[in-house]
Amino acid sequence: MSILYKTCVTVQRLQVNVTANWKVSGKENVPPGGPLIVASNHLSQCDPSYLTIGINRWIRFLAKRELFDNPIAGPLLYWYGAYPLNRGGVDVAAYKFAMSLLKTDGTLALFPEGTRNPSGLRKAEIGIVKIALASGAPILPVGLTGTENFGNWSRGAFFPTGNIRFKIGKPFSLPSIEGKISNEVAQSLADSIMNRISMLLPESYQGAYPTPKGSES
Length: 217
Description:
single chain, alpha/beta, Glycerol-3-phosphate (1)-acyltransferase, globular
């Protein structure tokens, strides 16, 4: 774990503790070691930094390549250990980065929706399924609430405020599947991941994945 990463996490934790009502539940569900994919809903462009203070592991993540050109966001992304992702097509380099990280017992954060959705969950993309099946890494579902305004500079939200909740579910693995799978099967597995995340969220955040009444995480 780099010094720059530790510094970023420390500063972010201090900001949250000072300016927001921050609570984390489910810390006992985080595996102490081994490869891990953290799968979370995505409300704010600053959500990756929230994951780093909510989960006590060195979390790496993929970020769209354009962000690295930003004079402020770019350096921060490198300090956090992010890797640039080309969202315009298949990115072989990013895939190799993810697989190498997981094969060395690293922790990779992925947002199955593929983009921010502050109004509620949207249909998942299948990229997370391909990485999870190829690596065999377990998936740790996370539900974030209250972060949707942080990072929205037009609203003046320079620091996290209000009630922020971070709920960590129990890790699970996708079923082992031999050979190439169809897009339909991949989408079904992606939906199953989203359902796990949805169960950690209030109804108003569940969007395309409403949880049946009475279900428990």
